[in-house]
């Protein structure tokens, strides 16, 4: 019973943290629109932007390919 309560509590906390993060939309030079979960991290040393896509996969894109990045309402 205690394990079940702990799992339910941790699940609730994880969902509430995920729900609070805002999505961002990046438009690329090719016209693609990329939706990222949370704010993408720009690494000026490597010239890459790291983001988590809608399916939860970690991805990177070259900064030169990004035209605009806006916070989704």
UniProtKB/TrEMBL annotation:
Pfam families linked to this entry: DUF903
Domain Lipoprotein YgdI/YgdR-like SH3-like: 23-70
InterPro entries: LSM_dom_sf, YgdI/YgdR-like, YgdI/YgdR-like_SH3-like
The UniProt record lists the keyword Cell membrane: yes
UniProt keyword annotations, A-Z: Cell membrane, Lipoprotein, Membrane, Palmitate, Signal
PROSITE patterns in alphabetical order: PROKAR_LIPOPROTEIN
Signal sequence region: 1-19
PANTHER family with a match to the protein in the record: POT FAMILY PEPTIDE TRANSPORT PROTEIN, POT FAMILY PEPTIDE TRANSPORT PROTEIN-RELATED
Protein name: YgdI/YgdR family lipoprotein
């Amino acid at each position: 019973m205690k394990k079940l309560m702990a799992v339910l509590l941790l699940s609730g906390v994880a969902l509430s943290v995920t729900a609070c993060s805002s999505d961002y939309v990046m438009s690329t030079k090719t016209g693609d629109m990329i939706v990222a979960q949370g704010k993408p991290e720009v690494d000026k040393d490597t010239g890459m932007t790291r983001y988590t896509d809608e399916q939860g996969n970690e991805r990177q894109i070259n900064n030169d390919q990004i035209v605009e990045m806006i916070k989704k309402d």
